[in-house]
Amino acid sequence: MVSSSVKDVAALARVSIGTVSNVLNRPEIVSPETVERVTLAMEKLSYVRNEAARQLRVGHSHALGLITLSGSNPFFTDLTTAAEDGATLAGYSVIAGNSDEKKDRESGYLNLFEELRVRGVLISPVGNIVPRLRRMRDRGIPSVLVDRVSNDLSFSSVSVDDIAGGSLAVTHLIESGRRRIAFVGGPSEIRQVSDRLRGARQAVAGHPGVTLEAITLNALTVQEGRRAGEAIVERPAASRPDAIFAANDLLAIGLLQTLFMQGNIAIPEEIALVGYDDILFASASVVPLTSIRQPSRLIGETAVRLLLEEADDPELEPRQIRYQPELVVRASSAS
Amino acid sequence: MVSSSVKDVAALARVSIGTVSNVLNRPEIVSPETVERVTLAMEKLSYVRNEAARQLRVGHSHALGLITLSGSNPFFTDLTTAAEDGATLAGYSVIAGNSDEKKDRESGYLNLFEELRVRGVLISPVGNIVPRLRRMRDRGIPSVLVDRVSNDLSFSSVSVDDIAGGSLAVTHLIESGRRRIAFVGGPSEIRQVSDRLRGARQAVAGHPGVTLEAITLNALTVQEGRRAGEAIVERPAASRPDAIFAANDLLAIGLLQTLFMQGNIAIPEEIALVGYDDILFASASVVPLTSIRQPSRLIGETAVRLLLEEADDPELEPRQIRYQPELVVRASSAS
DNA sequence: GTGAAAGCGCTAACAA
DNA sequence: TTGTTAGCGCTTTCAC
User: Fold this and answer.
1) Checking phi first, is residue B31 left (phi over 0); if not, alpha (psi -120 to 50) or beta?
2) pLDDT-based confidence at B145, cuts 50/70/90?
3) Which of residues 212-251 of B touch A (CB under 8 A)?
4) Is A140 helix (H, G, I), strand (E, B) or coil?
5) Are the C-beta atoms of B134 and B308 separated by less than 8 Å?
6) pTM
């Protein structure tokens, strides 16, 4: 048995295929009896509309593309869930992919989204994809940046002030008496990372006695956090930092595993630790984690809203929405 | 500007559209020079194939549908990532959704997948969807169950022995001297939950002095774990369990938050705790969590492989693949 | 309120 | 090796 089409439904209901299409798309213009008859026929045949055919005809799909930096970071999974909820409400579905911070994965999803003629794309970019996005916009696929501002402001964005966040974290560390601060972060091409570092530098700038060391990793994962932790444990105690600001909570949890659980370094006494994102596990980690909270759901919902507005009206001026992060103090930094 | 089509490419390259299609799909049968010329034209026009049109023609898409129970449970996000990797290798993309353990969400995704004419679906079901899957299979969309066995074995599945897992957990608790055991689990319609409880019951059965209390929650989330924890804290100490087996790690972490961090109940001295899944955070939680490890990536990869094989050959007999779980002992249960 | 028919972009069978 | 053509299932004028 194979899928039935409008033609089969039309035959069974003894109407034309045009009418079937109408009950599908504008039931209000067809008489109640006909709607009834057609609906019945659809059920009898368990008809399911062929989205590809619909899309081929109308020119674009009912899907939104979303690319995040990670599929396992709770910050992004929350954001994704919120985006899905928002999209569903508006009658769209979202195809979510994650770049794992890799340019070729990012590019692969963009290809897919173009082939699929998605209605628009939400993206937290790795590389410099503005030219690519511009080309897509020219062909009718708008995009909005999530958790990131576009350099040239030619695209809408929904982000959180990462410079302020970095500053918030490090200021807190300095105010609790720390002097040798290390920033542990992922690849610096990722804007979120470089901005948080920038904020950290700003905070340090006003305090002559305070030093800031930047430790650069390959990714923002628990594994990489562990790696950084091992390197720190191996140092002589005197040359270790007395505080670490991790670019996200996953990193911080990795650090906790090697520093505290394996390395027996007292947190926060010997080293204070601040993470970023305030994921659900931050408060329940081995040493409850001080973190910078971001409104993940709000970002996802807002981004979908902006995107859909721009899909409906391509002439809309790009808008930059920026939320402020919030410091949540817990044991890992409470001296 | 609007997307260009094979027609535009053909015109620019001065070939027929059939030839353009051939360089797209079977470049080996067209002469190198022509390939060259057509490729150049494609680049010049930045042509992107219209997947909807291709799909309409060939009858099915290059996408696989995947429905998990949760988008925020690391067990499922790992499984999803593995499935994506496997699918990508085979030239497919995966559209991942999560039911949040809700039947209507599950059904919504199945509708979407049917409209999209995905090549097949991977699903960790909530309700009894076998009839629905059967209907889809009749229409050419095969499916394989993930993390779950079909009751009637008419579908392939890739799962982990949850009864063995539950038994493993509770046997461990009994052997470390616990007598009043509580099972904290989500909705019992979820097979994983009822099987883990079943395993727990089996373990208890052989030990006369041991009791098992089942506490049923609405979902397998950190929040619900907290809720269960609060209820236990409120009991007089004497009537509290001396061990808890949580149906997953998220629940266990929620329990840790209320029992240990708010309620000042010593873990494992007063209450031992065992979780399930061994997610990345289990080892770094406030009291490192004893857990039952499942091969999440292996499940995802294997499921994709089976699905693709069945998509290529619908006559294939269903296969049941079942992995064994593994106990990982950490501080939360080490008396 | 309903029907007839064109055409979206592509692939594949067949012809040249 | 390349070109021509039918047709996938749908939506949408335009008649009636």
Assistant:
1) beta
2) very high
3) 222
4) coil
5) no
6) 0.93
Residues of chain B contacting A93 with CB distance shorter than 8 Å: 97, 112
Q: How confident is the model at residue B150 (pLDDT cuts 50, 70, 90)?
A: confident
The residue of chain B with its CA nearest to that of A52 is B52
* Long-range contacts of B41-46, Cβ-Cβ distance < 8 Å, separation of 24 or more: B41/B9, B41/B12, B41/B13, B42/B9, B44/B12, B45/B4, B45/B8, B45/B9, B45/B12, B46/A135, B46/B4
DSSP 3-state helix, strand, coil percentages of chain B (rounded to 5)? 45, 15, 35
What gap in Å lies between CA A129 and CA A312, rounded to an integer?
23
Give the domain ranges of chain A: 6-49, 60-160+296-324, 162-294
Q: B251-261: buried (b, 16+ CB within 10 Å) or exposed (e) per residue?
A: bbbbbbbbbbb
- Distance between CA atoms of B245 and B238, rounded to whole angstroms? 18
| Model confidence pLDDT, tens digit, residues B111-141 | 999 999 999 999 999 988 999 999 999 999 9
Rg (CA), chain B: 25
Cβ of B27 near strand D (distance < 7 A): no
The CATH code belonging to domain A162-294 is 3.40.50.2300
Q: Which two tokens stand for residue A217?
A: 């990793």
pLDDT of residue A186: 86
d(CA A254, CA A222): 4
* Neighbour-count burial for B107-118, b at 16+ CB within 10 Å, e otherwise: bbbbebbbbbbb
A188-207 residues touching B, CB cutoff 8 A:
none
In this structure, which topology does domain B60-160+296-324 adopt according to CATH?
Rossmann fold (3.40.50)
Cβ(B23)–Cβ(B35) under 8 Å?
yes
Taking the Cβ of residue A25 and every Cβ of chain B, the question of whether any pair is shorter than 8 Å is answered with: no
- Nearest nt to the CA of A34 via C1' is C1
Best mutation site among A115, A135, A223 for testing chain B: the one with the most B CBs within 10 Å? A115
H helices present in B14-102, as ranges: 17-25, 32-44, 51-58, 74-89
The residue assigned the tokens 């995947």 is: B66
Question: Distance from residue B18 (CA) to nucleotide C16 (C1'), in Å?
Answer: 14
A 31-70 residues with CB < 8 A to B? 46, 48-53, 55-56, 61
- CA-CA distances (angstroms) from residue A92 to A61, A166, A192, B14, B134? 9, 35, 28, 39, 27
Buried b (16+ CB within 10 A) or exposed e, A83-99: bbebbbeeebbbbbbbb
Residue B1, pLDDT score: 57
What is the longest distance spanned by two Cα atoms in chain A?
87
